Request: fold
Amino acid sequence: MCGIVGYIGKKQAAPIVLEGLSKLEYRGYDSAGIAVYDGEKIVTKKAAGRLAVLENLTHSGENMPGFSGIGHTRWATHGAPSDLNAHPHTNKEGTIVVVHNGIIENYMSLKTKLTDKGYSFASETDTEVLAQLLDYYYSGNPLQAITKVLHRVEGSYALGIMFADHPDELYAARKESPLIVGHSDEGCFIASDVPAILKYTRSVYYLDNQEIAMLKADQVSFFTVDEESIEKKPVTIDWDANAAEKAGYEFFMLKEIYEEPKTVTDTISPRIRDGKIEIEGLGLTDEELKAISRIHIVACGSAYHTGVTAKYVIEGMLRIPVEVDVASEFRYRDPILSKNDLVIVVSQSGETADTLEAVRESKAKGLKVLAIVNVVGSSIAREADSVFYTWAGPEISVATTKAYSAQLAAFYLLAMKLGRVRGVIDDKRYSELMDYLCALPDQIELLLGQKEKIQHFANRYVAAKDVFFIGRGIDYAIGLEGSLKLKEISYIHSEAYAAGELKHGTISLIEPGTLVVAVATQPELFAKTLSNIKEVKARGAFVMAVAERGRKEIEKEADYVLYIPHTDPFFANSLAIIPLQLFAYYVSVGKGYDVDHPRNLAKSVTVE
Ligand code: F6R
Reply:
């Protein structure tokens, strides 16, 4: 969602801010803006549309000289995407300038009060209220004005603020929306996500809720909302700066799909020592692992789909009951949680608002929360009781691929660890599973070799109107993700169904030529899915199947088959998802879409 970048230091600010914003493009946005102090006043430029429009307007920042500036990419919430609604927002004189991520929930009542006091508003945004409220409280002391405002606003915010009469300072504050502060010899930075400033510094401070940072060219100070000074320790980011570059790939999504063998290795390998799984930071003793009577997995979107897969894996492997919820439902359904339950939340960004709320809800009910998270230091990682980092590196494309694979791998490790501790997996089975697990990266690599075949097939379906994914058990979970990938980046209507459920209504949508993707990797369910393939074939569907190598019989029923290498059925998702990710990718490319930035979507969903 919205992105923030700010800089104050020895260099020209505008090019740094614009470049930083370009690194946040993946978050999804519909307008952009920048403000720079030019030595006398703050100059603001903003424009609806892609960042390129703003870059043109400012000649890539060259016609905005100055050593401090803030910039923003906006994903519209209050008011349409337009030049006027784009950030930064200012007071009437343009002497106080604000960029904001999040939502000010009481902005209407604040706006009314300010209007009564003679203030007028140029935009429909909640953010402009912040700029005007700062103006109202400002009497020469920026920190004082900011704290007064923060005491009055309700909702979420990450803020970058400049005051024209304090040109050597830049301010930042946060509540619920992520914000980091970076520090280097060249100057100081604020950013809503690490990739924006990775080129300049790896030393970052994570602002906590209701903390304020004051940045100068060579130092940063931190304050509470009561103006008390606080000490914070920087964290060193060990991401490879190149990881956030395209490295010759047309789109980040393809690059990230190609990174999956490495990602799965990076998630698995450090946790296997002398043939045993050891998960550092798990935060649960063996006794606690033995005592677990139920697991609740809570997540959104693709992360939720890894949870659906994990349900089949954990229940099938360990016979521990697992409930899976989408976080936006979990948080409002007053879930029944018992003393020996474990809550596992899953999130790539670690900032998803609903998932974060699920952490809080569970903790408030006295439960331990384990978070499977990719972004180190993110809000969910910090608020959960313990964290299982997936170490997939920065994921830039809005549609997740490598982080999804890493989450699956994390669940496999967790299931095997639990099985071992609880004595339900014997030595033989453990080493068999271990072999299959460790073979996954090479097998994924093999599947990537089928790229051309999949591209060829995808080109035939760029004009498809509806696509159905069917499968049973884990194959159903695979279908859920395959379908989401396709619809989010190709805008083709697509649905995933438990294969046996189709005939209870949805089969009426199958017409001659409708593409049905049948996932049939589970040996126990193979014959059943084959029957379901026959049912849709009888209604004229064109069936593309994904099955395990050697299952030749499927060729009699399906029109086109993609084979995956042999693995343990519990791990099949990690292989079967690769051709489906590639399929979605090539359909989107075939339609000429901006694969990495699908319409209406944001990478990090920080509003509920
Ligand atoms: C789909 C996708 C989303 C995310 C979901 C959760 O490709 O990326 O469905 O999986 O928004 O995001 P995180 O994992 O950051 O909590």
In short: The first strand starts at residue 3 and ends at 9. The chain has two domains: 3-238, 246-441. DSSP finds 18 helices and 27 strands in the chain. The first helix runs from residue 13 to 23.
